[in-house]
Amino acid sequence: MIESLLRLPPGPVDLNQFPTDATPGWDDGKSEGKKALTGLGDPLSDLQERLFAEGVADVGHGRAVLLVLQGMDTSGKGGVLRHSVGLVDPQGVRITSFKAPTDEEKKHDFLWRIRKALPSAGHIGVFDRSHYEDVLIARVRQLAPAEEIERRYDAINSFEAEVLAAGITIVKCMLHISPETQKERLLARLDKPEKYWKFNPGDIDERGRWAEYREAYEIALERTNTEVAPWHVVPSDRKWYRNLAIAQVLHDTLARMAPAWPAADYDISEQRKRLEDEAPIA
User: Fold this and answer.
1) Under the phi-then-psi rule, with left for phi > 0, alpha for psi from -120 to 50, and beta for the rest, what region is 76?
2) What is the bridge-based pairing of β-strands 64-71 and 168-176?
3) Cα–Cα dist 150/133, whole Å
4) Confidence at 42, pLDDT banded by 50, 70, 90
5) How far, rounded to the nearest angstrom, does the alpha carbon of residue 140 sit from its chain's CA centroid?
6) Quick check: 6 and 24 in contact, CB under 8 A?
7) Residue 28: pLDDT above 90?
8) pLDDT tens, 85-101?
9) 25 forms bridges with which residues in the sheet?
10) The predicted structure's pLDDT at residue 144
11) Dihedral sign for Cα atoms in the order 137, 140, 145, 150
12) For residues 149 and 135, is the Cβ–Cβ distance under 8 A?
């Protein structure tokens, strides 16, 4: 139920219509929400292990999951990685955080480095920021010509359709926070020495462009909210709900994929007899 309520409907997007402190599909409060997140651990881990086993046994036809996390600074991408993605076995997870492109990456199309980071069969790939930076910050900061930015929306849609056709299910989540909440979280980083490293003075400069970023997000969400790779707008002022919601979306995605334990490609009885009949090991 949570997943369907978070899914962005087609058409024009006005982020002001999506409360950042709402809890769609959950009425039982923070304490129960945290318990529910813990309760998702075993079923989510089981589904992920089945997917991983398919990849190891090469029976899942290359199936994998790509979780795309986008949001303003302090929206909680790191928290999602720890509390939601952290519920599953890390050996089956590949996390990629895209920073400013290197000189080598600048020589190629913007999707070049993205393709290289796609998850292999059986894995859950997580993009902590993603190819959407190239139509978000690139649009706001005018890091590319307007016609190039315009081209990228269709390029992203084509790319994501190819990814799905290759067996990778895409889950896109926009972590939606208010400027007031961001300010609180930035101030909190200045309150504790152990948080200083997380603070970037440039974040204050970016806050001055909040309206521009909101518009860039609205355009990107509308232009790339496709049938094969829809967006989910996740209210993220309440950390506990954000974590629960994304864990639930990930669980429901895997449940629909219904990964199965691979059948043995050997004679079980024969291998059992070998073990039972083996000589004692000195």
Assistant:
1) left
2) parallel
3) 14
4) very high
5) 23
6) yes
7) yes
8) 999 999 999 999 998 88
9) none
10) 94
11) positive
12) yes
4: left (phi over 0), alpha (psi -120 to 50) or beta: alpha
Taking CA atoms, 7 is separated from 77, 92, 224, 250, in Å, by: 18, 26, 13, 13
193-250 pLDDT per residue, tens: 999 998 989 889 999 999 999 999 999 999 999 999 999 999 999 999 999 999 999 9
Contact 72, 277 (CB under 8 A): no
For the question of whether the overall pTM of this predicted structure is more than 0.85, the answer is: yes
**Rounded to an integer, what distance in angstroms lies between the CA atom of residue 186 and that of residue 203?**
8
Q: First and final CA of the chain: distance in angstroms? A: 57
Please report where in the chains the tokens 């079923």 appear, as a residue. 43
Which residue's entry shows tokens 């080598």?
A: 104
pLDDT higher than 90, residue 171: yes
Transcribe 204-230 into DSSP letters: HHHHTTHHHHHHHHHHHHHHH--SSS-
- Write down the residue that tokens 């009885």 correspond to: 269
Q: How far is CA 252 from CA 4, 173, 278, in A?
A: 10, 14, 45
